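pasting for the record
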Amino acid sequence: MKLRALVLPCLLSAGLLVPAAYAQRQGTVEFGLFARKNWFGQSYGLHQTAGGGARLGFFAMRGLELEANAAYTPTRLLGSEKHVSVLRLSGILSYSIPTSEHSALIIGAGATHDTYRFRELGAGQSYQSYGSETGPMGLIGLRLGLGSTLSL
């Protein structure tokens, strides 16, 4: 059960609509959409829900990519009708190591900032700050090319 809960978000989080691994040369720009599964710690008091986002990357040189991500997750406080919006903004520097003509191992590091805002149903629909956090992040993944314009 836990393996399935990890595999599906990983597959969905892979960038869709991005160039295949062999096209990652200097000047290449990629755009991707992704789904994400969130596991909030107990201290957050939030329901575990899914969200989505978009990414934009630019290859400064062959294999070296500067990337920005934005993700949004709507959730609720446990035991409450307060709706919480979680916005994550990330910046990543990653390197793609070709493993074959159409695939690559990706490693990277960067920073992320999460903002939490809430509103109560029927309370004028205005959001109030719930908190935010900033920290480092790491990335390891596999890119599989699916032709000349798509990869997973």
